[in-house]
Each structure stands twice: as C-alpha cells, then as structure tokens.
Amino acid sequence: MTEITLSNDRPEAGTRPAVEEACYALLDQLGIAYIRADHEALFTMEALAPVEAALGCGVAKNLFLTNRQQTDFYLLIMPGDKPFKTKFLSAQLGCSRLSFGSEEHLLEYIGTAHGSASVLGLLNDSGRRVRLIADADLRSDAYFACHPCRNTSTLRFAFSDLTDKILPALGYEPTWVTLPRNPDAE
C-alpha cells in the first residue's frame, strides 16, 4: 500500500528539485492554498487511487501530445477516470491525429519527465510552444489535483484558483473540448 503524508504547506526549501520548488513558489506568490500529498513515485491513474482518496478528489490526467511533424505541442488536462482516444480530440481541434510527445520535448517545454507532466509545468514554457487543452468535464469539479512537476507529490487546490489565478499568471487560456466518457460507444 502506498504511504501518503498530507501537508498544508510547501516542503522545506532546498529539499526538492528546482522544477518542483518553482511550482510551490508560484502557488505561494499567487496566495493559493493547497494540500500536498507526498507519496512514492506513481506512474498510472490506477496507482493514484489512494492519493485521490486521501485528497478527497480526483487527480487530473495531464497528457503531452504532438502532431506527426512534431511542430505543434499540446498539454491536455482531463478527468483522470476518463479514457482518452486521440481521434476525438484531433477532430475537435481540426488537426491530424495527435500522438504522445517525446520525453525530450516534454523536458524541453514543460520541464518534466513522463509520468510527471502537469499543468503547473507550463511555467517552464517560456517560448509558449505548448497549447493548453482542457476537457469541459473538469469545470464541474470544486478541486483540481495534479503533480508539482514530479510524480512523488500531488497537490489539491480549488479549481477556480487554476482558472482564475494560475492560468492567467502563466499567460494561458485553455481551449475547452468535450471528450466522450465512453469513446468506444461513439
């Protein structure tokens, strides 16, 4: 069983990688209250189930995607319990079928490795190369949970803090899409 430690503040300075510490600095600068769950590295949505139970909300799925030419990059945030089929997203965006971006591009643009992609990683996208896409079902949640650019912690904060404070501070306006909950039936 995954051991989870909950806290209402940031870790002690200098104990985490710079990319993670930058996330806490951003949240503190914006005055955003959050709950932090520290845990072992978790790589799947299924493995995050105990963290979701501890935080009292679902953890968002953050998918780093690209076109075939690897010239356009996207970060899709969606409910973690919703399956993803690229054809539905590609159709709504009016682009060719998307695939998962390489670890090299993920590190370059968002500053994270696979398994740690996060909307908070957009603070590392100084060239604004990544387009933010968000599933409309997220709007019905009171809270938003994601990694602080490392999959050994998960943060929960108000969804309104994401849309009203974090994204504007980072200079992002999401493109809202509606992805099917049961894509195999479509």
Q: What would you say this structure looks like, in words?
A:
The chain is α+β, with helices and mostly antiparallel strands. The chain contains five helices and nine strands. It has helices at 18-29, 49-55, 86-93, 103-110, 159-170, and strands spanning 5-7, 35-38, 61-66, 73-78, 99-100, 130-135, 143-146, 153-158, 175-177. It has a five-stranded mixed sheet. The chain has a four-stranded antiparallel sheet with strand order 1-2-8-7. The protein is globular, with a radius of gyration of 16 Å. 33% of the residues are buried. The model has no long low-confidence stretch (mean pLDDT 94).
List the SSEs and their pairings.
Blueprint: E1 5-7, H1 18-29, E2 35-38, H2 49-55, E3 61-66, E4 73-78, H3 86-93, E5 99-100, H4 103-110, E6 130-135, E7 143-146, E8 153-158, H5 159-170, E9 175-177
Parallel strand pairs: 4-6, 6-9
Antiparallel strand pairs: 1-2, 2-8, 3-4, 3-5, 7-8
Tags for this model:
186 residues; alpha+beta
Q: How many E strands?
A: 9
Beta-strand content estimate: 15-25%
Mean pLDDT: 94
**Which regions have little confidence, pLDDT < 50, spanning 5+ residues?**
none
Terminal Cα span? 36 Å
Estimate percent helicity.
25-40%
